[in-house]
């Protein structure tokens, strides 16, 4: 499995961010080809001090190739182009292969 992680610093208008993200951005995300699962939160907290991020988004893909194909698809290009409409605080995008652990 390959994970895409998006970290959002605090935006200029948190209410606009929340509303736009849920109403407009997430419907675009749901159209990504090869997307296995996704999740997000506006309740980001730090164990000590103030959290450096306002929101977080995670997407799961079968592998790095599936993620790259999704991001370069027309749907993925629309998702990327839409970020400027709500993420006035910027955005940090990282991705990595997931290693399973045994409890």
Task: Give me a quick take on this structure.
With 103 residues, the protein is α+β, with helices and mostly antiparallel strands. The protein has helices spanning 14-29, 64-72, 74-82; strands spanning 2-8, 37-41, 55-61, 92-97.
> What structural class do helix, strand and pairing data support?
alpha+beta
Specify the helix fraction band: 25-40%
Distance between the termini: 18 Å
**How many helical elements?**
3
Question: Can you characterise this structure?
Answer:
The chain is of the alpha+beta class. A four-stranded antiparallel beta sheet has the order 2-3-1-4. The longest helix has 16 residues.
Short key terms for the protein model shown above:
3 helices, 103 residues, globular, single chain, 33% helix
SSE map:
Elements: E1 2-8, H1 14-29, E2 37-41, E3 55-61, H2 64-72, H3 74-82, E4 92-97
Antiparallel strand pairs: 1-3, 1-4, 2-3
Helix pairs in contact: 2-3
């Amino acid at each position: 499995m390959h994970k895409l992680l998006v970290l959002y610093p605090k935006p200029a208008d948190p209410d606009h961010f929340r509303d736009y993200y849920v109403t407009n951005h997430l419907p675009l995300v749901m159209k990504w080809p090869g997307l296995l699962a996704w999740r997000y939160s506006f309740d980001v907290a730090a164990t000590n001090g103030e959290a450096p991020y306002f929101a977080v988004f995670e997407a799961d893909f079968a592998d790095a190739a599936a993620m790259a194909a999704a991001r370069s698809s027309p749907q993925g290009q629309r998702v990327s182009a839409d970020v400027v409409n709500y993420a006035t605080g910027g955005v940090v995008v990282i991705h990595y292969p997931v290693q399973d652990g045994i409890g």
